[in-house]
Design goal:
The protein has 10 helices and no strands. With 225 residues, the protein is an all-alpha fold.
Length: 225
């Protein structure tokens, strides 16, 4: 009897929750947003967490930082282009490996999302889901990516090569604007951007394309916007 009363009470509470456009409840909105995020996350990770997921991507391949391009050109002129190429390849391999560590971080954010947040996201723009999760997980995701990328860079001495280049440049008497030798932070930022961008692409797809709504709750929540 107690269990039955609890069940009836839960139903009453759900029925009294505010609704969104099309009669979608807060609970349904939350469920739909969670499914949409999981779908976007799965596609992003599967695309990036493979060999050449970054390295051969026209959009997400990670090059040396823009301010280091003059150093890269100098070394290529000196016949050391293979060193630069090896560093760039390793950078991307590190990012590809690190992408596999994103899932548990995002799962934690999904679990922590409140129904009020879900309603705000449903009523938002094309990428409001991604915007919300970026705000909530960006620091944790960065911290998870950085050690993995750092280890990969260290393994082939890419960190050393890059550090030596930056040190030489910074030591020149004519260098007034010093360059940051921390390659790992730059690469981690680029890898994080790529992951969020791909999640945003899938979110927009779910909002605009009925075929992308692969479950009943996705069809109900995003079909009524």
């Amino acid at each position: 009897l107690l269990l039955l009363s609890g069940s009836l009470l839960s139903c009453d509470v759900l029925q009294q929750l505010p609704t969104t456009t099309g009669g979608v409840t807060e609970a349904e909105a939350g469920h739909g947003i969670r499914q949409a995020l999981n779908q976007g996350l799965g596609k992003a990770v599967s695309q990036l967490n493979v060999t050449d997921g970054f390295f051969k991507s026209a959009l997400y391949k990670i090059l040396l930082p823009p301010e280091a391009q003059k150093i890269e050109n100098t070394f290529r002129t000196l016949g050391l282009g293979s060193m630069v190429d090896k560093a760039v390849l390793t950078i991307n391999r590190g990012a590809e490996d690190a992408a596999g560590y994103a899932t548990p971080i995002f799962v934690d954010a999904i679990k922590a999302m409140t129904l009020t947040d879900a309603l705000n996201i449903v009523r938002g723009g094309d990428t409001s889901v991604t915007h919300y999760f970026r705000e909530k997980t960006n620091t944790k995701l960065f911290n998870a990516f950085r050690p993995v990328i750092q280890r990969s860079l260290d393994k082939v001495e890419a960190t050393k090569y890059y550090g030596d280049l930056i040190q030489r440049y910074n030591d020149f008497p004519t260098t007034f604007k010093k360059l940051d030798p921390d390659l790992a932070s730059y690469v981690t930022g680029r890898a994080t951007d790529a992951l969020f961008n791909l999640i945003a692409v899938e979110e927009k797809n779910i909002r605009e394309n009925p075929v992308a709504r692969t479950t009943e709750i996705l069809r109900k929540v995003f079909g009524n916007l």
